[in-house]
Amino acid sequence: MADDTLFVEVVCADGRVWEGEARSVVARTTEGDIGILPRHEPILSVLVPCAAEILTTTGTEREIVAIDGGFISVADNRVSLISPHAALAKSISLYEAEAELAKAQAALNQGDIDDETRRHYNRALAQVLAAQKAGGKR
Fold first, then answer.
1. Which DSSP helix (H) or strand (E) runs through 6?
2. What is the spatial distance between Cα 54 and Cα 8, in angstroms, rounded to a whole number?
3. Span 32-44, mean pLDDT?
4. 6-88: which CATH number, 3.40.50.300, 3.40.50.12780, 2.60.15.10, 3.40.50.150?
5. Which of 59, 60, 65, 77 has the alpha carbon at shortest distance from 8?
6. Residue 47: strand, helix, or coil
């Protein structure tokens, strides 16, 4: 790996979702959006539901990943996005994600505020954000 690239891995409970070399990574933490470039200072931060963006080394291709929380770790030009659930935007139907988000929102509005409902909401929100960012079709 060259000193001007990052090795990026996206890992969830089901396994590795994506890995490869990249020029940059953008994700959302509890403190706001963070951009990671080569030679970034080491960090460990909590992720919130988001559509993480990975600019690959081709410079023209980007991977959008739905992240429903978890952590980002950066050290020695290596970025790890670790989440309970993650999915590539190109595998997400915006229509289905919006329907799931509406169901989860309705459950929350009815007072169903248990951990499973919150996880459902976070996962659906992340998928909607990723599908929208990737220009998803309904």
1. strand 6-12
2. 8
3. 97
4. 2.60.15.10
5. 77
6. strand
Instruction: Tell me the torsion sign for CA atoms 24, 25, 26, 32.
Output: negative
With H, G, I as helix, E, B as strand and everything else as coil, classify residue 132: helix
Q: Largest alpha-carbon pair distance within the chain?
A: 52
Nearest to 97 by CA among 60, 51, 62, 53: 51
18: which 2 tokens? Answer: 């994506």
Q: Taking a C-beta distance cutoff of 8 angstroms, is the pair 52, 62 a contact?
A: no
Pull the structure tokens for residue 98: 């919006």
Average pLDDT over residues 116-131: 95
The pLDDT of residue 73 is above 60 = yes
Q: Cα–chain-centroid distance for residue 110?
A: 28
